[in-house]
Amino acid sequence: MINFNGTLLEKETAIFTRDNRGFKYGDAIFETLKVKDGNIVFLEDHYFRLMASMRMMRMEIPMSFTMQFMEDEILKTVEINEIDTNARVRLSVFRNDGGLYTPISNKISFVIEASELKTVFKRVYEVDIFKDFYVQASLLSTIKTNNRMLNTLASIFSQENELDNCILVNDNKNVVEAVNGNLFMVKGTTITTPPLSDGCIKGIIRKKMIELINEHKEYTLVEGKISPFDLQKADELFITNTIMGVQPITKYRKTSYVIATAKELAIQLDRLS
Predict the structure, then answer these.
(1) Which domain does 171 fall in, by range?
(2) What are φ and ψ of residue 266, in 5° steps?
């Protein structure tokens, strides 16, 4: 079942009209969350990111949309779907119907979907650069809107070329992120991740990983620009997102990588969740 504005409905229930703004204009944002042992992992971070994204999108935030409300609605959706193991949850928020580019209202609706989470750690993980289209280096690119055509095309490219993922670059030809997560590059004791100003998603696990690395005396965290050429000189590359946590990259073109640092940080991240 799904949760539409707090009401639980069968998945087949029609809830969108042809004037849905998420469909027509991509006028929607979303959060992907993980529920582990009945608890929403990093709930507070997800909630405040969602609120910041809604404000940036000029959406009207209902007074009732508190963190407790969000937690209750997510957990009741997981429960009604009888998911006893870990759950993957998508919370979508969209501006209500009406208007053309200019909406007639900034009021919102939401949909919550939950499914059983089955994650498989891949020991061999190969990537390449996707160069057909570019991420715009702007603040808008840092939030999770429904405009994910670039990610879709890059995923198709990965599938067609038997890759596990693709690295996206921005209009300045700097490395930004993977199709479905933030990117970290290890060189010696320095760990670099692209800055938000380059257009990468403001990831929750990115934030937690930066905090973890900064607590390590043996590592230096740098939010700095990465070129595609830098990737070939790296010791390690890894991807982070809410669902898989940390996924090491083992091969980029002719370059192979070890996974020691990624493995160590993954264990420490798991202790936080």
Answers:
(1) 126-272
(2) -65, -40
In tens, the pLDDT along 56-99 reads 999 999 999 999 999 999 999 999 999 988 999 999 999 999 99
CB 104 within 8 A of CB 141: no
What's at 76, amino acid-wise? K
> How many residues are there in the chain?
273
Q: Cα(127)–Cα(143) distance, rounded to whole angstroms?
A: 24
Q: Which residues, in sequence order, are bridge partners of residue 236?
A: 186
Total domain count for the chain?
A: 2
**How crowded is residue 189: how many other Cβ atoms within 10 Å of its Cβ?**
12
How far apart are the C-alpha atoms of 144 and 49, rounded to whole Å? 10
Surface-to-core class of residue 121, CB atoms within 10 Å of its CB (0-12 exposed, 13-18 middle, 19+ buried)? exposed
Q: What pTM does this model have? A: 0.95
Listed residues 116, 149, 176: the one ending a domain: 116
Which runs of consecutive H residues, i.e. helices, occur in 59-129? 67-80
Of 116, 149, 184, the one marking the end of a domain is 116
* Burial environment of residue 95 by CB neighbours within 10 A (0 to 12, 13 to 18, 19 or more): buried
